[in-house]
Amino acid sequence: MGSTSAENSNNGSAGVGRRDLIKRSAALGLISVPTMSFLSACASSGGDDSGDKAKAGKKTAKNPLAVNDTAQMEFVLFDGGFGKEYAEDAVKIYETNFPKAKVKFSATQKIQSTLQPRFNQGTPPDLIDNSGAEQMDMGVLVGKSQLADLTPLLDAPSYDDPNKKVRDTLRPGIVEMGQFDGDPVWIMYYAYTVYGVWYSQKALDSLDEQYPETWDQMLAVCEKAKKKGMAGWTYAGKYPYYLPFSLYPMIAKVGGVEVLDAIDNLEPNAWKNPAVKACFDAYYELYKKGYVLKGTPGLDHIQSQTAWAQGKALFIPNGSWVENESANVIPKDFDLAVSAPTGIDSSDKMPFGTIWASGGEPFIVPAKAKNTAGGMEQLRIMLSEASSKNFTSKVKSLTAYNGGTDGITLTPGLKSGVAALEKAGDNVVNPRLQDWYVQLQKEQIGVAGLGEMMAGRLTPAEAIKKIQGYADAAAKDSSIKHYKHQ
Known about the structure:
Elements: H1 14-20, H2 24-41, E1 73-78, H3 85-97, E2 103-108, H4 111-121, E3 127-129, H5 138-143, H6 151-155, H7 174-177, E4 188-200, H8 201-206, H9 215-227, E5 231-233, H10 244-255, H11 257-264, H12 274-288, H13 301-309, E6 313-319, H14 322-325, E7 336-339, E8 355-364, H15 372-382, H16 385-395, E9 398-399, H17 412-424, E10 428-429, H18 433-436, H19 438-454, H20 460-476
Parallel strand pairs: 1-2, 1-3, 5-6, 8-10
Antiparallel strand pairs: 3-8, 4-6, 4-7, 4-8, 4-9
């Protein structure tokens, strides 16, 4: 997204201009057609295995994964909101450790169209940051045995402390996120993203208001903002699957985490839960009362973030990459902050502070890569304290490494994100639809369901019926590998 699960940018205008020229239906085609071709392309489990894998190197204390020190290692990064400098810095460490090895590093926004042919030919790179608008479908990759199990990396000594395994240095939930069924770990989520409602504390102070904890309070704050010429909300209208960043944890807050689990599990009538209806009704009320920035359905993520940073709207649902992605438009005195979503009222099942936080920026090592050990070693380097601190300092986001903030002056958004995590305590939710069923989450629930509802073209009841239909179809589709919370 955004980085990771969302639509990411190039921190500039090239991609934005391209998107602006594409009408909604065409954009859907661009997203859905490659997805389907990837599904069919992977059906054969891709290409031939030419047997030219790098031979194992010598296993030592400094080389626990037995990397061949003369083999090339190829690393393809998604060029999004986090940029590429953090990865380039980690590559330099790899090159220092293995001076005879050539590293081929590249960054692109077109992950799927660039790499799909190589998966089909059986010649994928050794390490991929599988993110952005053209993210390859994780469920398909796992289901078609395209990925290497990262357990050897997790069980290897950590880069900083040989007495600690890599898995013991990670934030809670990171290992589990990379699992689909059973013990193997297919994905290493490198960033640690706090999702929620982002806003300017300065703007909120100017209204003499605090962040609203109930929906009546939210509507009152939006009304106050409207009277001062500011919309209450905006969002990435062209990519409305950003809305769940605050909507999904709100559903959990209102109805309990089991409601989200049922949705993830594609259970019959999961979307017809009263908590879902209450939250859809609440969001629709923002539209009905005119609290959404005019023109929002036509804005992409960069345009909506820019309008919000310019003070045209108070709240925006987003992930913690927004601080870096919008750094060039957020004023210095903005006082960026994030909050867990507003609930309905005191009858909600979970307390205020319930938030969605999880791994982001999914890194994978293809099963047919020539140098899988090299790909995993590059990840081991990135999961060191030094690389983690470098990432956090440069891109204003936490990593999967459990720590790495000591001695760093936290930026306003990052400081607010850490505070939100502390407030949440154990009340952190982690919806899995975006990992398990990419097309369902992005195109169907996001664009065809929530996007249409928030543009006023569907009522909440119609949106729920439509989304439940999509979920039921996915549940019955035998070509899709299905996953469930264990």
